[in-house]
Amino acid sequence: MYFRLCASRCRLISVGAWRTGSLLAVLLAASGAVSAQELKPWNGGTTPVLELADPGGQRHRLSDYRGKVVLVNFWTTWCEPCRDEMPSMQRLKSRFAGKPFVVLAVNVGESEARIAEFLQKLPLEFTILRDHSSAAMRVWRVRGLPASFVIGMDGRIRYAHTGEMNWDDEKLINTLAGLLR
Amino acid sequence: MNRRDFIKTASLLPAAAAVSVLPQFALSAFAAAAKWRVFEVTTKVGVLKPAGTSRVWLPLPLAGDTDYQKNLGSTWNVEGGTAAVVNDGKYGAEMLYFEAAASDKVPAVRMTSRFATIDRAVDLSKPGSGSKADRADLQRYLASTELIPTDGIVRDTAREIIKSAGSSDVEKARAIYEWIVENTFRDPKTRGCGVGDIKYLLESKNLGGKCADLNALFVGLARAVGIPARDIYGVRVAKSEFGYRSLGVGTDNITRAQHCRAEFHSAAYGWIPVDPADVRKVVLEEKGGGVLLPLDDAQVKAARVKLFGAWEMNWLAFNTAHDVALPKSAHGKIGFLMYPQAETTAGRFDSLDPDNFRYEMTVQELTSL
Predict the structure, then answer these.
(1) Cβ atoms within 10 A of the Cβ of B17, count?
(2) Best mutation site among A3, A143, A145 for testing chain B: the one with the most B CBs within 10 Å?
(3) Per residue in B189-204, pLDDT tens?
(4) Are B73 and B61 a contacting pair, CB within 8 Å?
């Protein structure tokens, strides 16, 4: 695997290389204050399956969102950078209101009660999914949290990033807007 | 009682005689108690004397899930630099790599990892269902490394040990295990977990060391007679629930609780856990006050039986890597990755000196998620 440094206040970003039959995503994370960032194109191979239930028990499949741009974000309540980026994720969703853009926030390994308690303090208007067994995290080869994957309208991963992201960043928003055309 | 009473160096005991007097181990009791436990380990590092570029490498939990450990994710905060997950390129050992350019601030990183573990036991009294291990993977764990050669004195010693063992891989591995329990000792003067230079151990006839020495000796001897074997480097995270004061950690500060274990591969059973080094730890430390327990002590005997085929999982596994080239390091390979590592342009830090490095590791067990 290899990695390269991005801008000074930023993070090391790695581009995963596929091994046979598996997703080898080495995603790099840094937290703290974030400024201008770029989403790096994904070249890690096939998009894994994602099928999980929301806290209400309704099942969501990534394939059901074909035709929309989807931000899949793996998070936990105990992950500080995860918590820190959520308000900007919420603003991003609002920014794309009326457009075919969806956020699927996948909580890893935590109970319904823990998630509910968190959401009471930070109400979010995007879809929360529960990966209680961490199976999805393993399939998507998530090692660092938060981990974000941008899925194009064709259902394939276009960008991936590990670490807190400033979803208010205009350049980032333009990149996502480009996928919505 | 002098520890030398337990040490046979030039003459090797027939392993079969040692095995026959051991009590039967109630595997069912051990397995019945098994339940998943969830832990969170936090590692904090501050590069107290930054000089030029600072680089830090922190071992992450095992990359892949096993039947005894599941990775629940890691997160990190950095100060004055950037961080990335990298691996060693050969064994799949993952580590968090932190880099900070020269500045007036103390570069710092805090990493938190969550994982689940469950006690592990292989019932060797029942027929195995066969191994599904990957052939290339097994070859990797037959090969020699810089500190674990499989020829010369290592091969000769191994052949001598298994002369009177049975023909199966389990019987041969058991003979090696018993030989290590009988002939080595835990040396309290060894720094950290030891170095793992098994050729030196055998040639010097001073078979004293700690886990990275004694379990590496098991690995080398097993490999030398064609049994795939590997060290697994990690850290203890809780006290022993089986009443062994010496085989656990009694505080939430695990900065100095690193521990290395071993496994060997059987065609019939797959990977089988062992830990002869911990048997010697019971001998040296269980009673306390510098009093050594004899090998026929009940607690030592019970540990000796249990630690061939089972591990209590009050322990976090990091990786199985040897001869680790730390990515972007300006210095040579390290024998194994079990401690935080760091370097600046002034040189590589002493990973066994956490107070001056500086790093601290703490753990908490989570009762609800």
Answers:
(1) 11
(2) A143
(3) 999 999 999 999 999 9
(4) no
The stretches of chain B forming alpha helices (DSSP H) are 15-20, 27-32, 135-140, 152-161, 169-183, 198-204, 211-224, 276-285, 298-306, 354-357
Taking CB atoms and an 8 Å limit, are B73 and A76 in contact across chains? yes
Domain count across chain A? 1
The answer to whether A161 touches A79, Cβ cutoff 8 Å, is no
Residue A140 CB neighbour total at 10 angstroms: 23
Do B217 and B223 contact (CB within 8 A), yes or no? no
B39-117+323-366: which CATH architecture? Answer: Sandwich (2.60)
User: What CA–CA distances, in Å, run from A5 to A2, A175, B74, B78, B84?
Assistant: 10, 20, 21, 15, 10
The string of pLDDT tens digits covering residues A77-119 is 999 999 999 999 999 999 999 999 999 999 999 999 999 999 9
Taking residues B169-178, report their average pLDDT.
Answer: 98
For the domain bounded by B3-33+126-312, which CATH number is listed?
3.10.620.30
Answer positive or negative: Cα dihedral of B340, B285, B173, B209.
positive
Find the chain B residues whose C-beta atoms sit closer than 8 A to any C-beta of A.
40, 60, 63, 65, 70-79, 81-87, 89, 94, 97, 99, 101, 112, 114, 368-369
CA-CA distance, B249 to B239, in Å (whole number)?
Answer: 5
Residues of chain B found within 8 Å of residue A13, distances taken between Cβ atoms? 84
Q: Do the bridges between strand B54-59 and strand B341-344 make them parallel or antiparallel, or are there none, so unpaired?
A: antiparallel
CB spacing of A74 vs B114 below 8 angstroms: no
What value of ipTM does the predicted structure carry? 0.78
pLDDT tens-digit profile of B249-271? 999 999 999 999 999 999 999 99
Q: Are B319 and B179 in contact (CB under 8 A)?
A: no
Domain ranges of chain B: 3-33+126-312, 39-117+323-366
User: When comparing pLDDT for A16 and A43, which is higher?
Assistant: A43
Other Cβ atoms closer than 10 A to B101: 14
Integer-rounded Cα radius of gyration of chain B: 20
Indicate the pTM of the whole model: 0.85
**What mean pLDDT is predicted for residues B176-183?**
98
E-state strands within chain B:
37-46, 54-59, 69-79, 82-87, 94-100, 108-117, 120-121, 185-186, 208-209, 229-236, 258-266, 270-274, 310-311, 315-319, 341-344, 347-348, 359-366
Quote the domain boundaries for residue A81: 3-179
The answer to whether residue A82 neighbours chain B at the CB level (below 8 Å) is: yes
How far apart, in whole angstroms, are the C-alpha atoms of residue B148 and residue B138?
16
Find the CATH number of the domain harbouring A45.
3.40.30.10
